């Protein structure tokens, strides 16, 4: 009966030598990374191994034979496909099984089904004939055998790998080679390092002042009968610091970095010439990316190497060929359909590229949807060749749009709305296009994008009411059919503003709560919900809850949350009043070009609150917020600047006009300011009735200054905000 085990490409005596080499390298690295001391240790003739990825193992040596057992806790073999450890040693001689049971398996004990027993996911054994495993080589590595991958390499290759992996210096590499050769020549002899040799330890990957753990290093060396004299630690440290300060050390580091890469390239080149699939893939990577001082970029050669590796079933090479078809630096061959074909082949071979496949399918469906001419679709596809050239992209989209391509039309509107590709902002034209692309059902991505862009444009001040009801109904339908947080959030805005429906704070609150439930770490949704709690919109007012939500949103980097948190600190709501904190958070939000935050920051500069008074800075912020963003609150603060003559010549006419502009966009501070002007006859004829109406509007939005004015001048006892 034919044995089905696999022979590893290593002799038993070479494995033992590889384990000694690994232990020497590990002992040196422990001086810098003492927390990793447990990853390689010896208990008489058993070498135990661990790594940070979830693998543990033990290799036990006897006279003329050995056994190694490993467990990778991340693989299914350690859980749902668990089987008794001894089954991994099927076909092994009896003496091997006895050695495993007596030694190696005792180092991999775990509790399974309330019973402590050895848990392994792969194993090997060895004797004079070689090393063997019941797995394929790839399976062996995947299920824990990677712990000895370097130990079974040729020693020169292994030293190069340890050098790179542990960032060893040239002196450290020389020390490793010296100790390894002495240890292999006389395995039973004790070795004691000289002061000069001890000084070599820690010269790689460490700074001159870095503290080394020589005690842990000495303990690791002692396990393989190599000794460090503790009395000489200080003398060795002095020599080490002198070396690290020298020009020789700096030159050595630079030289070594180059040599590492060159050796690595040469190894891959040699292995690729022998047809090794992994090496062919690595050569493809070198030629695709280029490497200074070693090889220039060459996409043609890169593809040749990838294709040779792919012909051997190398999964990642398939995905890299796919990548080259959508690489903007490789414009001549750009082809998303071919890219998809290669990525799908890679996925079939086990490569994790499903997200890329989904995105490619989405983009292909976007460009080549049913019913559209291939010529128009090709134009949209071709635009992708130039991701950093918006102007050229716009020309392709414009041509496709003229030919009736829905995606092209949507992208033209996006350029007009967001001023991409050198386009001047044209909200009117953008809205007219977005309305039509929102009505279609051929490309869902375009439909949803159009709906979201429409609401965004409305919030920017261009707000044609004739479309409100239609857009509102589309949102209601989409939210009912597709519970997506972005749609839910925008529908809440429509209920808040009364766009296409009556204002409904209760619905607004319910939708904002739902959006946060779906995406609890979205800064915008957290801020919107905080707003409801702050002003009691659709729920009981809860200032503390609002403060917590704003703070979480602000810490996540949300400009809206940062602005509102600044307001809480300025007014002392939910926290102690703190103008410096208010200034800090307004500054962060303004730095993200949040226009209302710019206005609030300008107000602090105008009054000198939490900062030095600086009306020039205030005016600059307000000019940007009004001219570029048409922000209502910025117009209001600009009005205050002219009313009080702060940094500007006092001008009540301008103040009134700016307040009116802000009030037209429902700014409650502007309503209060207008009420004050009518109450006191500032620029306008005194009119207490008009003043009262403005104060009432502001008070219903929970404006404290307006509520105080109604109580003081009109005898109101309490004003309840509209809920």
Search tags:
723 residues, Serine Threonine Protein Phosphatase 5, Tetratricopeptide repeat, two-stranded antiparallel ribbon, 7% strand
Question: Could you explain the architecture of this structure?
Answer:
The chain is an alpha+beta fold and 723 residues long. Among the domains are: 6-170, no CATH class; 271-367, Serine Threonine Protein Phosphatase 5, Tetratricopeptide repeat (Alpha Horseshoe), CATH 1.25.40. It contains 33 helices and 11 strands. Strands 1-9-8-5-4-3-2 form a 7-stranded antiparallel sheet, sandwiched between helices. Strands 6-7 form a two-stranded antiparallel sheet. A two-stranded parallel sheet has the order 10-11. A hairpin with a 2-residue loop joins strand 4 and strand 5. Helix 21 (485-497) packs antiparallel against helix 22 (505-518). The protein is elongated and about 110 Å long. The model has no long low-confidence stretch (mean pLDDT 90).
């Amino acid at each position: 009966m034919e044995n089905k085990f696999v022979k590893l490409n290593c002799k038993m005596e070479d494995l033992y030598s590889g384990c000694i080499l690994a232990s020497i390298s590990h002992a040196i690295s422990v001086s810098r990374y003492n927390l990793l001391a447990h990853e390689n240790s010896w208990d008489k003739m058993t070498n135990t191994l661990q790594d940070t990825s979830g693998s543990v193992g033990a290799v036990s040596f006897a006279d003329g034979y050995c056994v190694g057992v490993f467990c990778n806790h991340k693989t299914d073999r350690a859980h749902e496909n668990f089987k008794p450890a001894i089954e991994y040693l099927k076909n092994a001689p009896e003496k091997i099984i006895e050695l495993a049971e007596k030694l190696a398996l005792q180092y991999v004990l775990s509790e399974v089904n309330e019973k402590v027993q050895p848990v392994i996911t792969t194993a090997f054994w060895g004797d004079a004939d070689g090393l063997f495993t019941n797995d394929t080589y790839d399976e062996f590595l995947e299920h824990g055998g990677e712990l000895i991958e370097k130990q079974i390499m040729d020693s020169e290759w292994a030293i190069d790998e340890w050098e790179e992996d542990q960032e060893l210096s040239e002196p450290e590499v020389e020390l490793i080679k010296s100790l390894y050769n002495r240890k292999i020549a006389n395995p039973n002899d004790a070795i004691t390092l000289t002061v000069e040799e001890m000084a070599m330890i820690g010269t790689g990957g460490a700074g001159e002042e870095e503290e080394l753990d020589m005690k842990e290093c000495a303990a690791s060396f002692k396990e393989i009968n190599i000794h460090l004299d503790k009395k000489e630690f200080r003398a060795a440290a002095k020599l080490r610091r002198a070396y690290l300060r020298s020009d020789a050390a700096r030159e050595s580091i630079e030289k070594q970095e180059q040599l590492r890469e060159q050796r690595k390239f040469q190894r891959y080149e040699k292995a690729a010439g022998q047809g090794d699939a992994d090496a062919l893939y690595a050569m493809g990577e070198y030629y695709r990316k280029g490497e200074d001082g070693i090889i220039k970029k060459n996409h043609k050669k890169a593809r040749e190497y990838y294709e040779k590796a792919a012909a051997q079933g190398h999964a990642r090479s398939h995905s890299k060929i796919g990548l080259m078809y959508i690489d903007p630096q490789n414009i001549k061959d750009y082809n998303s359909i071919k890219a998809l074909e290669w990525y799908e082949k890679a996925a079939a071979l086990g490569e994790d590229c499903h997200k890329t496949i989904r995105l490619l399918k989405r983009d292909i469906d976007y460009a080549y949807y049913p019913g559209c001419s291939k010529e128009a679709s090709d134009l949209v596809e071709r635009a992708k060749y130039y991701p950093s050239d918006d102007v050229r992209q716009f020309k392709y989209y414009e041509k496709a749009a003229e030919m009736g391509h829905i995606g092209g039309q949507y992208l033209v509107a996006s350029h007009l709305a967001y001023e991409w590709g050198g386009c001047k902002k044209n909200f009117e034209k953008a809205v007219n296009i977005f309305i039509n692309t929102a009505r279609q059902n051929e490309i869902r991505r375009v439909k949803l994008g159009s709906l979201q862009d429409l609401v965004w444009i409305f919030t920017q001040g261009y707000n044609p009411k004739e479309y409100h009801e239609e857009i509102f109904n589309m949102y209601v339908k989409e939210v009912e059919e597709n519970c997506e947080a972005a749609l839910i959030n925008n529908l809440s805005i429509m209920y808040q503003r009364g766009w296409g429906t009556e204002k409904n704070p209760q619905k607004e609150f319910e939708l904002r709560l739902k959006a946060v439930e779906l995406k609890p770490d979205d800064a915008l949704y957290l801020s919107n919900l905080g707003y409801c709690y702050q002003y009691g919109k659709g729920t009981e007012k809860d200032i503390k809850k609002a403060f917590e939500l704003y703070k979480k949103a602000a810490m996540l980097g949300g400009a809206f949350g940062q602005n509102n948190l600044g307001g809480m600190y300025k007014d002392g709501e939910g926290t102690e009043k703190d103008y410096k904190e208010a200034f800090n958070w307004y500054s962060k939000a303004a730095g993200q070009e949040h226009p209302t935050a710019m206005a609030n920051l300008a107000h602090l500069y105008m009054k000198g609150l939490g900062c030095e008074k600086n009306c020039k800075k205030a005016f600059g912020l307000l000019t940007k917020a009004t001219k570029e963003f048409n922000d209502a609150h910025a117009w209001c603060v600009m009005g205050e600047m002219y009313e009080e003559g702060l940094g500007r010549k006092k001008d009540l006419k301008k103040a009134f006009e700016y307040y009116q502009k802000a009030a037209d966009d429902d700014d409650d501070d502007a309503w209060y300011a207008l009420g004050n002007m009518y109450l006191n006859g500032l620029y306008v004829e005194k009119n207490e009735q008009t003043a009262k109406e403005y104060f009432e509007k502001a008070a219903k939005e929970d404006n404290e200054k307006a509520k105080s004015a109604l109580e003081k001048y009109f005898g109101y006892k309490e004003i309840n905000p509209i809920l």
